[in-house]
Amino acid sequence: MNFSGKDVNQVLSIIKRAEAEIKLKTGYDVELSIMTGIFKCDTPELLLTVICSALGIPMDLLRQKGRTQEHVSTRTVAAFFLKKYFPQLGSKKVGQLLGGYDHSSVLYMLAKAKDFYDLKDELFMRKHYLVECKMQEYITE
Predict the structure, then answer these.
(1) Given Cys at both, which of 14, 38, 67, 101 links 105, Cβ 3.0 to 4.6 Å?
(2) Which domains does the chain have, with CATH numbers?
(3) SS (H, E, C) the chain
(4) According to the model, what pLDDT value does residue 116 have?
């Protein structure tokens, strides 16, 4: 399923409004997701393949040590999903999967990912949404 930038923005806007309304009515902070079913992904490497496919980038680009906003945000999204779906992975292993980053760099990436997610950073959330949409292909009922 392919989405245009307009579709992504519309869905993100709806999700933000729904989360805000739930908080207003209940006092609870919630995280809404468009996924239904169970994400079936057996290995972190497969998850990285899904992420690269969703973002339209080759794996070697994900693992490059560039410092452009595009490189950094892509790695941050990848680290976020790796820890979300493979919480048992240590930061050293996540760093290896992302191209050889050390423990402290991964911890920093994860802290930034949490900040971006909490603040609903536009670039981060757009990539997050595209990855979740791609993950729909790996959902089992």
Answers:
(1) 101
(2) 37-140 (1.10.1750.10)
(3) CCCCHHHHHHHHHHHHHHHHHHHHHHCCCCCCCCCCCEECCCCHHHHHHHHHHHHCCCHHHHCCCCCCHHHHHHHHHHHHHHHHHCCCCCHHHHHHHCCCCCHHHHHHHHHHHHHHHHHCCHHHHHHHHHHHHHHHHHEEC
(4) 93
In the chain, the amino acid numbered 58 is: P
Residue 26 identity: T
pLDDT at residue 140 in the model: 67
| CB proximity list for 56: less than 8 A, separation 6 or greater | none
CB-CB neighbours of 33 under 10 Å: 11
Q: What is the pLDDT of residues 115-129, one digit of tens each?
A: 999 998 999 999 999
Separation of alpha carbons 71 and 52, rounded Å? 12
Measured CA to CA, the distance from residue 46 to residue 12 in angstroms comes to 26
